[in-house]
């Protein structure tokens, strides 16, 4: 059976039965189109028999070729996830064993640190906000100053209670994962 037919059925199921978003279905479609193109060039087949011949080294070669094309590691991780989900679908629909292809682990990606907002931009924001005089506007200004000045997450600021005010020299914040940290 030709892979394009199976891919169309799978994408239709994702969209209409599982209610995946249009963007997700489009991304999966692009990943699988790229993979079937590689499969045709690499193995010479674009059908279920070609999948039966596939080895982990072939999938790694596909991912490497994508990296060489300048595709980001995060996009490669998503493409590998797409492929694994598709292989599970093919296994169920065509009664073939592709379980050896599901063993490949998603590569770890480097997490980027968030970029801080510049002091000039914060000053401009606060001056713009201070021009308004309603109590909600002043509350928002105080919140922005607290978030930026103390380096709090929004959830951490929302979890502060009145017992912690007025703020002392040092504030102990309970953040993500119930981890405590000291904020000067």
Mind explaining what this structure looks like?
The chain has 2 domains: 3-103, DNA polymerase, domain 1 (Orthogonal Bundle); 119-183, no CATH class. The chain has a two-stranded antiparallel sheet with strand order 1-2. With 184 residues, the chain is mostly helical. It has helices at residues 3-17, 22-42, 48-53, 56-68, 73-94, 119-130, 135-150, 154-158; strands spanning 171-174, 180-183. It is elongated and about 70 Å long. Helix 1 runs antiparallel to helix 2 (22-42). Pfam families: Phage_int_SAM_1 (PF02899), Phage_integrase (PF00589). One of its GO terms (molecular function) is DNA binding. Residues 1-91 form the Core-binding (CB) domain. This is Site-specific tyrosine phage integrase, putative.
CATH architecture of the largest domain: Orthogonal Bundle
Enumerate the spans where pLDDT stays under 50 for 5 or more consecutive residues. none
Structural domain count: 2
Average pLDDT reading: 85
Total count of helical runs of at least 4 residues? 8
Terminal Cα separation, in Å? 65 Å
Rg measurement, Å: 25 Å
Biggest sheet details: 2 strands, antiparallel
> How do the SSEs run, as a string of H and E?
HHHHHHHHEE
Broad structural category: mainly alpha
Into which percent range does the helicity of residues fall?
A: 55-70%
CATH class of the largest domain: Mainly Alpha
* Number of distinct beta strands: 2
CATH superfamily of the largest domain: Tyrosine recombinase, N-terminal domain
* Proportion of beta-strand residues: under 5%
Largest sheet: spatial strand order? 1-2
The CATH topology label of the largest domain is DNA polymerase, domain 1
Morphology: elongated
């Amino acid at each position: 059976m030709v892979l394009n037919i199976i891919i169309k059925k799978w994408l239709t199921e994702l969209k209409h039965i599982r209610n995946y978003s249009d963007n997700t279905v489009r991304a999966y479609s692009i990943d699988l189109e790229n993979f079937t193109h590689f499969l045709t060039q690499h193995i010479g087949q674009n059908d279920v028999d070609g999948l039966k011949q596939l080895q982990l080294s072939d999938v790694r070669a596909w991912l490497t070729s994508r990296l060489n094309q300048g595709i980001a590691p995060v996009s490669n991780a998503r493409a590998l996830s797409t492929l694994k989900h598709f292989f599970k679908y093919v296994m169920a629909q065509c009664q073939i064993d592709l379980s050896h292809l599901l063993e490949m682990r998603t590569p770890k990606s480097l997490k980027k640190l968030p970029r801080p907002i510049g002091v000039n931009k914060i000053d401009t924001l606060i001056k713009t906000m201070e021009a308004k005089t309603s109590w909600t506007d002043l509350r928002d200004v105080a919140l922005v100053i607290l978030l930026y000045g103390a380096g709090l997450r929004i959830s951490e600021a929302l979890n502060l209670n009145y017992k912690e005010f007025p703020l002392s020299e040092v504030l102990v914040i309970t953040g993500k994962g119930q981890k405590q940290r000291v904020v000067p």
